[in-house]
UniProtKB/TrEMBL annotation:
Matching InterPro entries: Rho_GTPase_activation_prot, RhoGAP_dom, START-like_dom_sf, START_lipid-bd_dom
Region spans: Disordered: 78-102
Entry keyword NAD: no
Domain START stretches: 470-639
Gene3D superfamilies: 3.30.530.20, Rho GTPase activation protein
Domain named Rho-GAP: residues: 225-429
Coiled-coil boundaries: none
GO biological process: actin cytoskeleton organization; regulation of Rho protein signal transduction; signal transduction
UniProt signal peptide: none
Protein name: StAR related lipid transfer domain containing 8
Lineage: Eukaryota, Metazoa, Chordata, Craniata, Vertebrata
Gene behind the chain: STARD8
Length: 670
């Protein structure tokens, strides 16, 4: 074994780095090949196998097995009982629900070398038989060792049980999604380089030139509005009228034969479009023809500025269903979906779940394959993307009206792909278990789990200390006039600014401010006790426990676009109304309360939330909201583009919940 390992290392030293961006080839160690190593690297074709490299990996896995045996040894006490120090597995090799103690890995004497082995290990039962590489590029952060555990999220009690719910993408933290996208890019690149078009030297996610001028969508409200613009406007990527159309078909029209295949009446469809644009939040489809509403949905997706799959990834999805073997398509599509923007992924999941419900009704005679034939041109923008795209990878065909061989193949791939996605929609948006284990073992997946109520109220600890630190931080920022914040204009007469925080968490700290025509104490009362007047997504709220006259545990639940889980918030909050000149403040942070189990949603985490209400004369207040929260299921890129605007719109709704003051009247007093 030693001589073979030496030969393999010598072969490895002759190979150039794959992490270099200037490399003309891109070969991955984790791509399974099929022949022996006999030629120089640049003389190899795609079917060469690195047998010696496989032996090195087997040796690494042998070290991993030793670590697993060590873990099993500390898992049992002298009487043979479990102390919760490791994960139990059933006979099938699948990890069972772990029963961990609330102590970190470092508490049980894990050395640095031991943790390196576990942190860099991969599940041996990978679906694709792939092995993740170690380099200085994208994969480095997935396998980089951790020398010191600094976050309470590494407590064993916080490690997820790998049930179906915990594997869903929309339940992961921002840090986990950040890692997931890197890991998915590695996997997707490895598979596509092996199975993609033979004449292409290597596969890569296409890059597009940015447009010099951003289109103006102010005169549009539903049709032709990008998903990102709509989520910035309303907090949800799909307009309410389009969601209502799906609900109408699902509840009343599933028995209509040939729905989505039979055409509606053009004049009635046009009237529905005008109704959507005029009042998208108050559209009723009662009494409308099912075929008209179905055609309206097809037109909505066809009129989007880019396909749901995005122009950047659409060709990748088509290539998956043209070249990747059927038994490997599911994990490949999962990797591609993980790379989609969050708003596009959420809309795709909503659409596929809806079409799955339509296909499950036998009365309409529309199977998944039939629906795919009818909807693939609208969802993939077939024959449209090629004409309107600025990408050099999609040339315009000189023959007009006559599809070439490539067009026919892409149409077939789109139909087969959409049919497969409708059938397996429940699996597409889950993370493979081996990838999830890898994310859990990475030190960068510093999950933002809140402290439990028992920890905050434990001996020697006052729960108000954390809140007092937040209060003093807010007062210091106000005294320094919020120096060091990067400002930008916000929507609805608000001001937005942000700054980076000096920890490793990828989320920024956002600040929004505006003037409210009410005194500070009235604004404080509105935020504390009258949330239903300004939070349109609120489902329920309750004060769980009052700790003293100005400190309490507060629970509230907000709605999400179906079928995504609703968001559950449990915060510890404290307020003050004795600031100079009559100012008020309110600070909050997330809490984990054992007596309040999570039911059917996802527990969002508020890292910090601070409201500062300062009087500015004439009965008005200057309200500033500083927030940093992990809503789950959103990547750091989504927070950079969307989260600040959602905070600004929330503050604008608080402002608009007060009636306008009469400038000639007396100053309001409380």
């Amino acid at each position: 074994m030693g001589s073979r390992t030496g030969e393999a290392l010598e072969c490895r030293l002759r190979r150039p780095s794959c992490g270099s961006t200037g490399s003309c080839t891109s070969l991955y160690d984790n791509v399974p090949e099929s022949s022996s190593v006999t030629d120089d690297l640049f003389g190899l074709d795609r079917d060469v196998i690195y047998e010696n490299l496989d032996e090195i990996l087997e040796h690494v896995w042998g070290l991993q097995r030793k670590v697993e045996l060590w873990s099993e040894a500390i898992q049992l006490d002298p009487e043979g009982g479990s102390i919760g120090g490791g994960e139990e597995t059933d006979s099938g090799g699948e990890p069972a629900t772990p029963n961990f103690e609330e102590r970190s890995v470092s508490d049980i004497g894990t050395s640095a070398s031991d943790f390196d082995s576990t942190a860099n290990s991969l599940n041996e039962a990978e679906d694709l038989g792939m092995r993740e590489r170690r380099d200085s590029g994208v994969g480095a952060s997935l396998t980089r060792p951790c020398r010191k555990l600094r976050w309470h999220s590494f407590q064993n009690s916080h490690r997820p049980s790998l049930n179906s719910a915990s594997l869903e993408i929309n339940r992961q933290s921002a840090a986990q999604l950040n890692l997931l996208q890197k890991c998915s890019l590695l996997r997707l690149t490895a598979i596509m380089e092996k199975y993609s078009v033979p004449h292409k030297q290597s596969w890569a996610v296409p890059k597009f030139m940015k447009r010099s001028k951003t289109p103006n969508y102010r005169d549009k409200r539903v049709f032709g509005v990008p998903l990102l613009v709509h989520v910035q406007r309303t907090g949800q990527p799909l307009p309410q009228s389009i969601q209502q159309a799906m609900r109408y078909i699902r509840s009343q029209c599933l028995d209509q034969v040939g729905i989505f295949r039979k055409s509606g009446v053009k004049s009635r469809i046009q009237a529905l479009r005008h109704m959507n644009e005029a009042s998208p939040d108050h559209v009723s489809y009662e009494g409308q023809s099912a075929y008209d509403v179905a055609d309206l949905l097809k037109q909505y997706f066809r009129d989007l500025p880019e396909p749901v799959f995005t122009r950047k990834l659409m060709e990748t999805f088509l290539q998956i269903y043209q070249f990747v073997p059927k038994d490997q398509r599911l994990p490949t599509v999962q990797a591609a979906i993980a790379l989609m923007p969050d708003e596009n992924r959420e809309v795709l999941q909503t659409l596929l779940y809806f079409l799955s419900d339509v296909a499950s009704a036998q009365e309409n005679q529309m199977t998944a394959g039939n629906l795919a034939v009818c909807l693939a041109p609208s969802v993939f923008h077939l024959n449209v993307s090629r004409k309107e795209s600025t990408s050099p990878r999609l040339p315009i065909d000189s023959t007009m009206g006559k599809p070439d061989h490539k067009d026919l193949n892409e149409n077939l791939a789109a139909t087969q792909g959409l049919s497969h996605m409708i059938t397996d929609c429940k699996k597409l948006f889950q993370i493979p278990q081996d990838v999830m284990l890898q994310l859990c073992n990475s030190y960068l997946a510093a999950d933002t789990q809140p402290l439990s109520f028992s920890e905050l109220m434990g001996e020697g600890r006052d729960s108000r200390i954390d809140l007092e630190v937040s209060i003093q931080s807010l007062l210091k920022e106000s005294f320094d006039r919020f120096k060091g914040w990067l400002g930008m204009p916000g929507p609805l007469n608000t001001e937005i600014s942000c700054k980076k925080v000096g920890d490793v968490h990828p989320l920024r700290l956002w600040k929004v401010s505006t003037e409210v025509e009410a005194p500070p104490q009235a604004v404080l009362q509105r935020v504390l006790r009258e949330r239903r007047l300004w939070d349109e997504d609120l489902l329920q709220e309750k004060v769980m426990e009052a700790l003293d006259h100005n400190t309490e545990v507060y629970h509230y639940v907000t709605d999400s676009m179906a079928p995504h889980p609703r968001r559950d918030f449990l915060v510890l909050r404290k307020w003050r109304s004795d600031l100079p000149r009559g100012g008020c403040l309110l600070v909050s942070l997330s809490l984990d309360h054992k007596t309040l189990p999570l039911e059917g949603g996802v527990r969002a985490v508020v890292l910090t939330s601070q409201y500062l209400m300062e009087p500015c004369g004439m009965g008005r207040s200057r309200v500033t909201h500083i927030c940093r929260a992990d809503l789950r299921g959103r990547s750091p890129d989504w927070y950079n583009k969307v989260f600040s605007r959602l905070c600004a719109m929330e503050l604008a709704r608080i402002r608009d919940s007060f009636p306008a003051l009469d400038p000639s009247g007396p100053e309001t007093k409380i």
